[in-house]
Amino acid sequence: MKKFRILPLALGLTLFTLNSCQKDIDTINQENPNQFSNADGSLMITGAQMANVLFQEGEAARMAGIFSGYFTGYDRQYISYQQYKMTAGDFDNIWGTLYAEGIAQCKIIKEKATASGNTELYGAAAITEAHLLLTASGLFGDIPASEACNDEILEPKFDKMSDVHNYCIGLLDEVIPSMTGSSAYGDAYVAGFDWGQVASTLKARALLRNKDYAGAAAAAANGVQMNMDLKADHTQETPGAWNLYFDFLYWNRGGYLSCDGAYIVGMLTDSIDDGTGTMVVNPQGRINDKTQEMGRYDYYFLPDYYTSLDPNMFGIFYASSHYDLVTYVENELILAECAARTSDDATALTHLNNVRDYNNNMFGGFAAYDIADFGPGAMVDGATASDALLQEIMMEKYVSLFGQCETFNDVRRTGNAQGVPVNIGDKLPARYLIPQSEINARKNVLIPSEGTDLFAPLEYYQ
Amino acid sequence: MKKTLQKLSVLGLIGLGLMTVDSVKAQVDSDTVKVGEVTVTATGLTIDARKAGFGVSQIKSKNIQTSGESGLIQAMTGKASNVQITRSTGDPGAGAYIQIRGQNTITGSNQPLIVVDGVPVSNSSIGGGPDGVVQQSRLNDINPADIADIQILKGAAAAAIWGTRAANGVIMITTKKGKSGLHIEFSSQLAIDQVNREYTKQSKYGQGSGGAWAANNALSWGDRLADRSGTDQVDETGDYFLADDGTKIYPIVDKGDQTVYNDANRNQVFRNGTTWNNNLSISSANEKGGVYFSVSDWNQQGIMNGNSDYRRTTGRLNFDYNASDKLKLSLKSTMAKVSSNRIQMGSNLNGLYLGYLRTPADFDNTIYSGTYYNAAGEASFGAHRGYRRYMGDAAPVYNNPGWTLNRQVNTSDVTRFILTPEVSYKWMENSTFIARIGYDNSADQRITYFPFNSGASTSNGQYGESVITESELSAHFINQSSHKISDNLSANVTLGYLATDRRSHSIGGSALNFIVRDQDRFAFNNSTTENMNPGVSRAQILNNRVYGIADFAYNDKLFVSLATAAEQASTFSDRFYSPSASLSYELSKDVEIPTVSYAKLRASWGQVGIAPPAYIWGTNYVSAGSASGWGEIMDASYYGGSIYRSTVRGNPDIRPEIKRETEFGVDLKFLDGKISFGATYYMNNIDGAVLAVDVPASTGYTSTWDNAAYLSNRGFELDLNVNVMKTDDFSWNIYGNLGSNKNMVDSLTGSNSLFLAGFTGTSSRAVQGQAMGALWGGQWLRDESGNLILDANGFPQASPEEGVLGDPNPSWRGAIGTNFTYKGLSVNVLFEACQGNQMWGGTYGVLNYFGVAEETANEVTVSAADAANIKNIYGQSIDGLAAANADGTYTVRGNIKDFGAGNVLLDQAWYTGLGGGCGPVAEQFIYDASWVRLRELSLSYQLPASICKALHIPGASIGFTGRNLALWTNAPELGVDPETNLTGVSNGRGLDYFNNPGTKSYIFNLSVKI
Question: Hey, which residues 854-913 in chain B have their CB within 8 Å of chain A?
C-alpha cells in the first residue's frame, strides 16, 4: 500500500543513524575521562598515609585531648564535646578516614606489593595499617579488622579489642625484620625515621595497653631512638600540607578549642586560679628545684588570641611544626614505666632522665633526677620512692604527649593516675561511639551494643 | 485577539497534517471554545486538548509577563497544580527548584526536562551547597517576553517518548512566531525590590560572654547596655585603625558606649533593589511566512547593598517560511548574555548574613576597611575590621558585612545561544516528514575573589576562576501520517527518531596566598606555584531513541493513544523501553448531563525512567587526600602526589530507574463553559533509584553505586476556572489550582538514611518510610513512650542517636486568583498557599547560641526562694548567678522553663550548649514552614483607542504589579521567608542557615505599540 511507504524509509534512516552512533554509545562512558581506573601500589601509599596523619592528628586527637584534660571545647559544637555530649554522628568523618581512606588502601597496597614482590612497600603499608588500627582500637575498642575492607564482605564483623591488637602485633612482627633500617615509602613523614623502630614502638604501645610490661619493654628496646621520631611532615605552610592543629586553631575554627581552664595548664604552672579569681599554689604543679616548665609552657600555650589561653598555634601547633606520631620520648617513657612497674627503679630512672635530658635540650630547665629525689616529703612526693617515680613517669608522659591520642589510653589504663578532672557528671568518657554512618548502613551484622555508650569501658580498660 | 489565536492554532494543525481534514472541519464547525484548546505534545507538535488522555497544565504568555519575575521558572509559580517552584534566595537571578508531582529520584536530578520549540535545552544549576553563592538556573536565560505558551506535561504517559529524561515531567515551551500584519511593541518596566522578611535582634546586651564585655568575642552574652557609663574610654597612645574616611579607631580600655547599632548595621546591608527591563519586539507575517524579532535588557541591582546585580540581554529571531504548499522551513534562534555578581552566603565565614546577624547590638559595622598602624607606627594597608577583630590588626574571624558586600567579587558571565532549524515536507497527501535540529550552548565564566584580609581561611587572599561550558546537540526526525480506517475510526501514526549528544566541560583554577596584597587582580600569577591549583572536568552523554505513536479516534469521542520508545544511552548498557497508553472519552457526546456542557474522562499509564549518571560503572582511582568535616585537609599533591582507590564503589550493572505511573482524570465544563474544572489522580512508583548507597566504611568504601531505592508518589490535582461574568465591557474570572503529593521512600537498600544536603548535625535526607528530603539530626533523649529523659538538674539531654525531625514537603499547595477587566482596566490578584511543610531554622538556632535572638535577651525576676531553687544546666542556682535586687528578688538574663521536673533557668550556659543552634539537638529548631502569600497583585490599563489615535500609536498600556506583597507564616520568630533553600536547586530541602533573604517587589510597566 502506498500509504505505508513511509515505514521502510523511516526505518532505513533510523537504522543508518543508529549504526553510526552505536559504537560511541557503547564506549564513551566506559572510562571516566577525569579519573584513573587503576594505580600502582607505590603511588597509593602516600594517600594512605595522608589518611593516617589526618586520623592521628585531626578530630580524634582533639576529642581525646578534651577527654584527657589537654583542651577545653570552647565554642560551637566543641562546647558540647566539652560537656561529653557526643552523638554517634560526630564520629562519622573520623571513621571514613580511618577505613575507606586508610585501611582499605593499605590492604590494596599490600596485595599489589605482594604481587610485585616489593617487600618495602608491603612493610610500609602493613605498618601504616597497624598504626591506624591500633589508634582506632584504643579509642573505639572492638572494631572491624580481620574482615575489614574486603570487597566480598559487605558487613565486616567487629573483632574484640584484644584480637585487633594481636592482629596488629602480627602485622608488625611480620615486617619488622625486613623494614629495620628502611624509611622507604614514607613521603608523608619527616625523613630520618626507621620503619623497624617505629613498628617496634607501636608494638610496645599495643602490649602496654594490655599491661604486658615485659613484652612492651622488650619491644620498646628496639623502638624509636633519639632523633629518629616519626613525625607528620608539615614543611609547606599551605592548607593541605600544614599542621592540622594550626588549620583548626587558627585557620578554619578559631576559638573552638582552647586551653583556658585545661588541666594540663596547671601542670606547667606554680599557681592556679582557685575558681574565684584568687591564685593559689597548684598542688599538681610539676615545678621544683630540678624542673622549670616555663619553656614548655610557652611552647604549648598562647595567651589572649582567640581565647584567654589557646593551644599555641604559633608554637607546638604552628603551621610548619611537624606533628609527633611515634617518638623517642614516648618509647623511653614506655621503657621507664615498664621498668618501674616491674620494680626496676634504676632502669626506670635512667629512661626518665633520658627524657628530661631531651626536654632540657628542647626547652631548658630540666636537670637529671636522683632516686633520692623521690619519696615521702622529697622533691617528688609519694608514699614510697617507687610510687613517686612511677607517678612522675606517668605525669611526664602526660605532659610530653600533649595533643596526642595515646594519652587517653594511658588515662583509662591507669584508672586515671594522671588525675584528669571530669568536666561534667562523675565519669570520664571511656570510648568513642561507633559512628552513626556505620550503624545506619548495617542490616545484618550489628555493632556491639556498648559501642553506643560513651561511658562503657573497653575490654582492656575494664 | 483570542479568535485570532484559535485560528492560527487550527491552521497550524492543518499545516502539520496532524489530523484528517474531516476531523478539523468537524471541530471548526462545532464548539470553537474546544478547538482553541490545543496541547503541545512531547514531540513538540500540537494536538487537540480533547484528545489528550492525561492532565496538562498550560501557562499563557500574558501570565508569565505580568508576574514581573526575571526568571521564567519563578514566573510559573502558583500557575499550575502540583508544580512546586521554590526559589533558592532573593538574590538577583537566583535559580529555583521545580518539582512536578513529587520527587522521583534520590541523588539524580528531580528537575524536569525543558523542551523549547521541540528541542531539549539545559536547565542546569551547577554548584549550590551550604556555602558560596547562589547559582542561576540556565532556564532563566530565556526572555519571558518571548514565550507564547508553556505546557507542563506532568505524567509518565504524556512524556513517555522522552524515556529516561522524562521521569520528572517535561516543560514544553513554545516561543512566539510572527503575527499577521506588522506589530511593533516596546515595553519598559521598573521594579523596586525590598527584603520581605528579616530577623529581629536583641538590643539590650552587648558583645561578650558571661555578662562581661569582651572585645572581639563572638557572642552577645556581654554586659547590659543600660548599665554602662555612656562613653568608651580608649587608649590613644598606641596602635590605631585609620578608616578610609579618615576616622581613627583606638583600642577600647573601658567599654561605656550604650548606643545600639542594629539599625545602622541593617542599613549597611540592605537597599531598595531596582530593575529596569526594556523589551522591543517586532512581529510580522503573511501567507509566505512570518518573523518574530525581539531584543530585551533586564538590568537589576539586588536588595543587598553591594556587589549584587544581574543583567540579562537577549535577542531572538524566529522565522518561518512556506516555500511551497508542501515545504516549510523555520528557524528559531536566541542568544543571551547574562552577567551577574553575587553575595557570599550560608555556612560561610565570608558570607553576608553570618557576619551581619551575629554582630552584637553594640558594635558598629560601618567602618570595615582602612589601614592598621601598630604601636610603632608601621602601617598594614588593606586592613579589614569587623566585630571579631575591631582594630583590624589581622583578618577578623567573620567578615564585616561591608567587606562581604563591597570587596568580595563573585561574578558569573554567561553566553548562551539556542538554534533550532526545522524543515517540514508534506511528501504525501496524508504524510509529513519533519527534521529538526537543536543546538543549545552556554558558557559560564565564574570568578570568586576574596581580597587579602578577608575573614577566616581566606585571610591571605583567594581567587578562583572557571569556565563551565555545556552543550546539547539534538537531531529529531518525525514522520506523521493520518489514516482513515473506517468511517468511524481514524488513526494518526507518528514515527520518530531522536538522538542527543550532551557535553559539559569545566576548566579553571584557584590561587591562594596572594603575593601582591593591596591590588585586586584576577590573575593566577599572584600566587606561588604551590598555591595554584588548576582543575578540569569533562563529560559526554550520548542518547538515542526510536519511538512510535498511534493515535486512534473513534467517532470523534473516544481517543486512544498507544506509544512506545526504545532507547539506548552511553550511561547504561541494556535498551530501555518506555511504553505508554492513554484513553480519552468524551462522555458528553453520549450522555446528556444537566448543566454539564462538556465532560471527558481520561486514563493513562506510562513507563519512563531516569538514566544513571555518567562514569559510575567502574571504581575510580583518584587524587589522594583526606579532609575532615571541619575543613582540615591532607593533600597528597604536596607530598609528591598519590593516586588511590576512590571511596565510592562503581557498579557495572547499573540500569536506569524505572518510573511507572497510572493516572485518571476528568475534565468538566458547566453552564456553557462558564465553569471549567479538571481533576487528576495519579500514583506512581520508582523502581531502582540510582544512588551512591552508604555502606559501612569498614568495608573500605563509604558508598557504592546501586539501583537501591524504591520511591512512590501519589496525589491529586484540581484546576478550576470560573467565568463569573462577561459582558462587552466587563469580565470577571476566578481561577485556582490545588495539588497534593505524598512522596514516600519505600525502601533504601543498604542504609536507613542517606544524606542529601546539609550539615553533620542537621541534614535533609532520604530515609526509609519517610518522604524524600526528610529533615534529620540530633534529637532529645526520650523514653519508650516519648517523654523527655531529664538530667539531675531538670534539663533534657541529647540522644546519642540521630533521627527524623520533620518533613520539608508540603501536604498541599494551591493558588487562587481572580481577574477583573473593565474596558481597558484589568486587575489580577493571586494568592498562593503551601501548607504542612517543615523547615530547619538553623539561623534562628544559631542566633540563640550567640545571644542575638530577642528571646535570649529576656530578663526574669524571681523571688529569693525561687532564686535559691531554680538552677541552670550547670546546676548553679539563680542566687549564685546574680546579685539580689533591693527588694530581695533576683533578676537574671534568660528564660524560665519547665521541662517536666520543675522550673529551670535557660541562660547562656543553656543557649551556648544544648539549647542553641550549635548544640547537638537540632530537633528544637524544626518549625512549621507553612505559608500563605499574596503572590501577585497586578493592575493594568489599556489606553483607550481615542487617546492612542491622538498619539498616533496603535495601542499602549500601563501597569503595576506587586509581587510577594504579603506573607503569612506560622513561625514568626524566623526572620526568613520560608520559601528558601540553603542548598539551592539540590534534592536536599527545607534548610535555612544564613541564607540570603527573599524579596518583595513593586513593578511598574509601560507598553507601547508602535
Answer: 874, 912-913
CB-CB contact of B471 with B439 (8 Å): yes
Reported ipTM: 0.92
pLDDT tens sequence across A187-246: 999 999 999 999 999 999 999 999 999 999 999 999 999 999 999 999 998 889 999 999
- Domains, chain A, in order of start with CATH, read 43-238+321-461 (1.25.40.390), 244-311 (no CATH)
* pLDDT tens-digit readout, B123-137: 877 766 666 787 888
**Cα–Cα distance for residue pair B632/A242, rounded to 1 Å:** 9
The DSSP call for residue B220 is B
B431, B625, B628: residue with CB nearest A6:
B431
Q: B477 CB near a chain A CB, below 8 Å?
A: yes
Q: Does B425 touch chain A (CB under 8 A)?
A: no
The DSSP line for B371-431 is: EEE-TT--EEEEEE-BTTBTT-SS--SS--HHHHHHT-EEEEEEEEEEEEEEEEEEEETTE
Q: Taking Cα atoms as reference points, which of A82, A88, A101, A103 lies closest to residue A147?
A: A103
Sorted by where each begins, the domain ranges of chain B are 2-56, 61-172+180-192+276-344+409-616+651-658+666-773+808-837+932-1009, 783-803+841-924
Instruction: Report yes or no: B448 and B460 within 8 Å, Cβ to Cβ.
Output: no
Which residues, listed in sequence order, are joined to residue B477 by a DSSP beta bridge?
B435, B497
Chain A nearest C-alpha distance from B18 (Å): 15
Which residues on chain A are in Cβ contact (under 8 Å) with B639? 46, 49-50, 187-188, 233, 241
User: Which chain A residue shows the shortest CA-CA distance from B395?
Assistant: A251
Q: With a CB-CB cutoff of 8 Å, which residues 668-707 of chain B face chain A?
A: 693-702
pLDDT for B245-298, tens place per residue?
999 999 999 999 999 999 999 999 999 999 999 999 999 999 999 999 999 999
Residue B835, helix vs strand vs coil: strand
B618 in A contact zone (CB under 8 Å): yes
Q: How many pairs of residues across A and B have Cβ atoms under 8 Å apart?
A: 328
List B residues 216-255 in contact with A (Cβ-Cβ < 8 A): 218
CATH classification number, B61-172+180-192+276-344+409-616+651-658+666-773+808-837+932-1009, choose in 3.40.50.1950, 2.40.170.20, 1.20.120.350, 2.60.40.1120: 2.40.170.20
The answer for B 784-803 residues in CB contact with A (under 8 A) is 797-802
β-pairing, B730-748 vs B812-822, is antiparallel
- Candidates B406, B409, B414, B407; CA nearest to B311 is B414
Q: How many CA atoms lie within 13 A of B186 on its CB side?
A: 3
Closest CB from B542, B620, B695 relative to A28? B542
A440–B544: do the CB atoms touch at under 8 Å?
Answer: no
Of B57, B101, B95, the closest CA to residue B79 belongs to B57
Cα nearest neighbour of B478 on chain A? A10
Query: Which residues of chain A make contact with B456, given a CB cutoff of 8 A?
Result: 251-252, 254
B404 burial level (CB within 10 Å; 0-12, 13-18, 19+): buried
Looking at the complex, report in whole angstroms how far the Cα of residue B763 sits from the nearest Cα belonging to chain A.
11
